[in-house]
Design goal:
Strand 4 and strand 5 form a beta hairpin. The chain has 73 residues and is of the alpha+beta class. It contains one helix and five strands. It starts with a strand and ends with a helix. It has one domain.
C-alpha cells in the first residue's frame, strides 16, 4: 500500500509527495473524483486509488491550529 499527498495541481497534473518525500506527477484524470490540493490518496496492492478523508481532515485541522498559534503569538 502506498500513500500520496497532493501538493498542488498544475495543468491537469497532480504533483504528489510519497511517504519517502519523493515527488511524483499523476494525471488528474487517474485520481479519484474530488481530489484536490491537500488530498491524501491511498493506493492498495491492486492499484486501486481512494481518498483518505478522515486522515486528511485531521491533518488540515492540525495545520489550521498550528497556523492560528503562530499568528496569535
Amino acid at each position: 500500500m502506498q500513500k500520496y499527498i497532493v501538493d498542488r495541481i498544475e495543468s491537469g497534473i497532480a504533483v504528489c509527495e510519497k511517504d519517502d518525500g519523493e515527488m511524483i506527477n499523476i494525471p488528474i484524470e487517474k485520481l479519484p473524483v474530488d481530489t484536490g490540493e491537500g488530498s491524501i490518496i491511498i493506493v492498495d496492492n491492486n492499484g486501486i486509488m481512494k481518498l483518505e478523508t478522515k486522515e486528511e481532515k485531521a491533518r488540515k485541522s492540525e495545520l489550521f491550529s498550528l497556523q492560528n498559534n503562530l499568528f496569535d503569538n
